[in-house]
Amino acid sequence: MKALLKALGPGLLFASMAIGTSHLVLSTKAGAQYGWIMVIPILLANLFKYPFFEFGIRYTTVTEKSLIQGYLNLGKTYLWIYAFVTLISTFTILAALYVVTAGLFMNLFHINSMGAGTISLGLFIFISLLLIVGKYRFLEESLKAVITILFVALLITTIMVLQKGTVPGSETYQRPEIFNEAGILFLIGLVGWMPTAVEASGWVSMWGMENLKTMKNKPTLKIAIQEFNIGYILTALLAIFFMIIGWMTLYGTGTELSGNAVIFADQLVNLFTTHIGNWAYFFIAVAAFATMFSTCMTAHDAISRVSVDILQKLYPKKSLFQNKNAFAIMVIVMTLINWMVITLFSANMGDLVALATFVSFVLAPLLGWMNLKTVMGNDIPLEHKPKLGLRILTYTGMVFLSLFALYYCWMLLV
């Protein structure tokens, strides 16, 4: 147990990163629109994607190298594929996360005088300073507290809404059709981003690398996987909590959750206070903001680390990328790029996120296969390769993701 507690880090960072829009927005909407039946795709997505993320921890713990190095070992083409996916994420994911977080901030402090772009810039600068000055250890320690508080708050709220029961009329309410075009598109979005996109396996690997640097004694593979499993199970539980809250409070009311970040933030906080009491408004608003703030921080950190590692592997002779301050520089570059995206393309943010969704969905099965090929490679001893059961789950997950990707492409083309 002592060794497990010392190894805590990558799994909790994964949980903090995943509990963003996929949980706050999509899980809540799933319960509100379709009811309890949405627990099935949420659990299936978490189950079938598990091996792809676990392989990131497995590879790094055994080899003490990043998953990006594993891709390079397979061949430069594989690294270029991952670099392409990361490039798309660079121009979309962070911008979208920061806009939602800015909306929550405006709601929390009732700010109407400044726009989301200005507040996003303030958040970018603040988080960049935290990442550059505090580095990995600060990120890890601060998020342990955030995750603990969020879990307790959500657990209490979920118990209270279950005790209160569903809203009047929900028993006779006819849920929208799931298997029509609108329902399938929502299902694809839910599954695609639950718990998060497959390319985040590289992010987990980078956090594993940083965690190893801070430890005197390297954890065993068993301990490292147990630590990751704690974070992964926590991620799935919180997704179900959000789904239940949406189901028990909105299902059958006809209320639609807004796509506007500020309005959605107000709706979300009111969901909690309706069942706990107005006295809890401030605490719930802070918890919701802290959730998205930590998601921004972990995603900003991860994409910066992965980008530096990719550039170092692709251009090993470029001194600029081998600089000891490369991470700090990349954090700043990410800030500038994404703030410009928010400023210039705020009206088309939905189209940019749709592009990221398309690329992520279409390439997810390929990335999953790359991860399996990496952990089955020659640099992993036989005793540390995934066992038959995990390999079968991996292939099942690849088929699962491929079907969703093919159907998604078909719906876009017809």
From TrEMBL:
InterPro entries, per database record: NRAMP_fam
Signal peptide: none
CC annotations in GO: membrane
Pfam families (UniProt xref): Nramp
Compartmental location: Membrane
Domain of life of the organism encoding this protein: Bacteria
Keywords of the record: Membrane, Transmembrane, Transmembrane helix
Gene Ontology molecular function: metal ion transmembrane transporter activity
TM regions (residue ranges): 34-57, 78-105, 111-133, 145-162, 182-209, 230-250, 279-304, 325-346, 352-372, 392-413
Membrane topology field: Multi-pass membrane protein
Protein name, as recorded: Divalent metal cation transporter
